[in-house]
Amino acid sequence: MVEWSAEERAAIQEVFNKLDYDDVGPKALCRALIVYPWTQRYFGGFGNLYNAEAILSNPMVAAHGIVVLHGLDRAMKNMDDIKNTYTELSELHSEKLHVDPDNFKLLADCLTVVIAGKMGYAFTPDMQAAWQKFLAVVVSALSRQYH
């Protein structure tokens, strides 16, 4: 079990309080699909992903980016039991979707970049450290079924 300090919990909550899910989620997923084009293979049913413009204007990509943030919201609300909170998602991604677990980290990194861009100097080093720890726990929980 991961130990969270009061400061870490507050920092993570502050990030979530400032998130515009409809903006940040789509931007993070678009960034992942553009920067790491091999991740597109898991989104074959999303239609045209042939170039950055197509990805950025794809409503299915945008909608899934929002879904991803709501999934993270679940983790934030269950910080003391993220592993069990994500059991079904881990099984879905490993057994049905066959997603390479390294892609979770890539998306987490893209999400951090987008958040840092949105928050600017308000995304302090301490806040980033707490956020990175949170995402590492989420990535581990999502990758659990693969081990």
TrEMBL record:
Keywords: Heme, Iron, Metal-binding, Oxygen transport, Transport. InterPro entries: Globin, Globin-like_sf, Globin/Proto, Hemoglobin_b, Hemoglobin_oxygen_transport. One of its GO terms (cellular component) is hemoglobin complex. Residues 3-147 form the Globin domain. The keyword Cell division does not apply. CDD domains: Hb-beta-like. One of its GO terms (molecular function) is haptoglobin binding. GO terms for biological process: hydrogen peroxide catabolic process. Belongs to the globin family. This is Hemoglobin subunit beta-like.
